[in-house]
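Lay summary. Proteins are chains of building blocks that fold into shapes, and those shapes determine what they do. In this project we predict the shape from the chain. Here is one chain we studied, written as its sequence of building blocks.
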Amino acid sequence: KLQFLYFIDAMKKWFIAVLLVQLLVMAWWFTSQHRMLKSVSGGRRATDLQKGERKVIDFGSLKDLEERMEVKETSVKGVTKVKKNVESAEKGGVTEHYERESILIALASYGDMECAPTVARAYERAAYPDRVFFGIFQQHNCSGLDDAASCKDCIANIHNQLDCPNHPLCTRLWQVRVSRLPMRQTQGVTFGRHMAENHYQGETYVMNIDSHSHFSRGWDSEIIDMFKRIDDDHAIITTYPSHYTERHTGFDKSGDGEFEISRSSHEMCICTTNKVKIYKSQNFKHVVGHMHRPSKPIRTAFLAAGFNFAKGHRVANVPYDPYTPFLFDGEEMSFAVRAWTHGYDFYHPDKSVVAHLYITSGSKLRPVFWTDKWNERYVIQWKSTLRVNYILGLHDIFDKVVPESEIDLREIQKYGLGTARTTDQYWTWAGIDLQGDEKSSKSLCGIYQSGGMPPVPRKGIDI
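And here is the predicted shape, written in a compact code that computers can read:
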């Protein structure tokens, strides 16, 4: 009987000890999650968009972000890089950095060897890397994390390619959010961008770029400064970026590389769009034009998918349409018209902050989805085009022989048009003749050089 009582007493002590350990673990977990959410939000109010909800979450004060900023300012090597980037931005005219405002870079990668270097460059050239977050949708041939190096994973094992712990990314890997899919299961670029933006967690701004990009020093301060100078909460800064060459591909372990982004007086723009045949349908493909760099951001008529920067509410108001697999020609027009009818205006930047790797589609550096099974995927792209044309009100013009029953209309309201302006207004304003035989729209380069496109009133936005 005495032994039994000793056994019961021991079991009680064991149970109490296990319970205390569990409580300590739970307390640690909740504390770490709370700190993470505070730092992710930068003390702002965030919106939970994962399930289409509009629930507002308050993550508290900015004290945690400010403390981390101060620590970074006293670090040994990181401060050198940050100060260099801050000074570069200020040399270019930036007077206020708005370091409390955060940026989500949305990026979709398709087997791209430049994906990981692109992520590293964003941090090594940012004025305030603490405010930079990534949402990545990776479509690579990785069999697992052990295969990360050979398949060029966007983030796994990236620390082995950098001068850690000195490189700014080494202590900020938690700021990179990644979802992965095998290359063979890809659904194309619009689905990829949609999935990348699913990583949005209430950042102040969202910036879409391609997975082969370079940056100017202090790019984050420069792009925010540009947005502030436009003074339009519904502005989208967008253009075809300047270029970098294969000489500047790969990692710069120290982050002190000599690459300087091109800021010539003559730069690319989008003045014209062409009607293009897509199997049995039509849509639009933009034409690269050139103009003198403006002295301030100017309003333009077209959007570039490979570089656009806007307030975070754009993700909620105009999300990328995931029901358009393998859409390529027509992607930019679809997204632009939807955004424009929701009240967003497009602005050509007055300085280049992002560079793009322009190479042939056959390069091993940058695979493209239309080189694999395109005889099958081309027909799927046509079906996506039917959906796009239906949304943009072009069905009766381009596809009237196709019954509506053959068009994918899933969540058509969510990925549809806005009410601030109409598509008819857009076609007229952008100089696009839908009914005529002209292949190209009216060139707008002259209007751009004269100060930009005229404003079109927006219901519910302009007072």
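What the prediction tells us: DSSP finds twelve helices and 15 strands in the chain.
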